[in-house]
Amino acid sequence: MQPGMAPAVGLLPARRVIATAWDLVTSRPKEVLLPVAAVEVPVSVVAALVIAGALTTVLRDVALDGQDRGYLALLLIVGAGQALFAQVAHGAAIVSIAAVLRGKPVPLAGALDPAFTRMGGLLALLVILVAMSVLLALTIIGLVLLPYLVVRLALAHQAFMLEGRSPFAALGRSWALMRGHMLRMLGVMLLTFLIFLGPAILISALDGLVAGSRGMQVALQALVSVVQGVLAVPLVAFASATTTVFYLNLEDAARG
Questions:
Q1: Taking the mean position of all CA atoms in its chain, how far away is CA 123?
Q2: To the nearest whole number, what is the mean pLDDT of the chain?
Q3: Does residue 210 come out as left (phi exceeding 0), alpha (psi in the -120 to 50 range) or beta?
Q4: Contact, 247 vs 157, CB < 8 A?
Q5: Which of 2, 31, 7 is nearest to 19 (CA)?
Q6: What is the SS3 string spanning 101-164?
Q7: Phi and psi at residue 64, in whole multiples of 5°?
Q8: How far, CA to CA in Å, does 18 sit from each of 25, 57, 91, 164, 195?
Q9: CA Rg, the chain, in Å?
Q10: Which of 104-113's residues contact partners 24+ apart within 8 Å by CB, and which partners?
Q11: What's the rounded Cα separation, in Å, for the pair 34 and 220?
Q12: How far apart are CA 109 and CA 167, in angstroms?
C-alpha cells in the first residue's frame, strides 16, 4: 500500500482519501497519468481531425454557431466516441492505480489491455448510468434522488474492472459496498468537485478563444479540442485515484 493508506486498516476520512489520491498523482505519474494520457490524447487528436475534416469538406457551408443540425450531429457523434474512450481511460487508470496500491505495479500494457478487452462492458455500464440519470432527471422526485444514485453507484467501475463483474453486477456490488459509507463518499466527491472547479472553468473558457475567419475558427477549434483533452488527463486520473483509494480502503477494512 501507498504511505497514505498504510498501515491503517480502518476507514480513511474523506480528506485522507483525497490526500492519498493526490500523492499518487504527483509521486507515481507514470502509473496514474500515463494510462489516461495514452488513451485521451490520441483520441482528442483524432476527434479534432475528424471535426476539422468534416467542417472543411461535407460541412464546409454550415455555420459554427451550434444551430445547424449537421454540425450538432457531428459534435454528438464525436462526443459519444470520446465518452466511450474516456471510460476506457478510466478503466485503465483504475487497474494501474489498484496495482500500485497493492504493491504490484503493472506496465502500461497491463493496464490498457483489460480496459480495451472489456470495452463493450464499459460501454454498457456507461449507457446504463446515462439512461438511469436521464430517466431520473425527467421528474422532480428523480432529480432529488439523482445525487443519491450517483454516490451509491460511484464504485461500479472499480467493481467492474477489478472484480471482473458484469455491468449490472458491478452496479449491484457498488450499491452494497456503499451501504453505511454514503456520507464519506459524498465528502470525497464534494472535495474532488472543489479541486476540479478551477481547472474545469479554465478548460471551458478555452472555447472563447475560437474566433476569426471560418478557416481560423476551424483550426483554433481543433487546437483547443486537443489542448482540452490534454488538460483533462490529470483530472480523469485524479478522479480515478480517489474512487479507487476509497474502494480498496473499504476492502481492506472489511478484511480487518
A1: 13
A2: 88
A3: beta
A4: no
A5: 2
A6: HCCCCCCHHHHHHHHHHCHHHHHHHHHHHHHHHHHHHCCHHHHHHHHHHHHHCCCHHHHHHHHC
A7: -95, 50
A8: 11, 46, 19, 26, 10
A9: 19
A10: 105/28, 105/31, 106/31, 108/34, 108/35, 108/38, 111/31, 111/35, 112/35, 112/38, 112/39
A11: 26
A12: 23
Give the torsion sign (CA, 161, 166, 171, 173).
negative
- Taking the C-alpha atoms of residue 191 and residue 214, their distance in angstroms, rounded to an integer, is 41
Q: pLDDT digit string (tens) for 108-145?
A: 999 999 999 999 999 999 999 999 999 998 899 888 89
Number of C-beta neighbours around residue 55 at 10 A: 23
Tell me which of 120-124, 149-153, 184-188, 218-222 is least confident: 218-222
**Residue 7, all three cell numbers:** 498501515
Task: Output the nine-digit C-alpha cell for 71.
Answer: 454540425
User: Smallest Cα–Cα separation from 123: which of 73, 86, 176, 163?
Assistant: 86
> How many residues can be counted in the chain?
256
Work out the number of other CB atoms within 10 angstroms of the CB of residue 7: 7
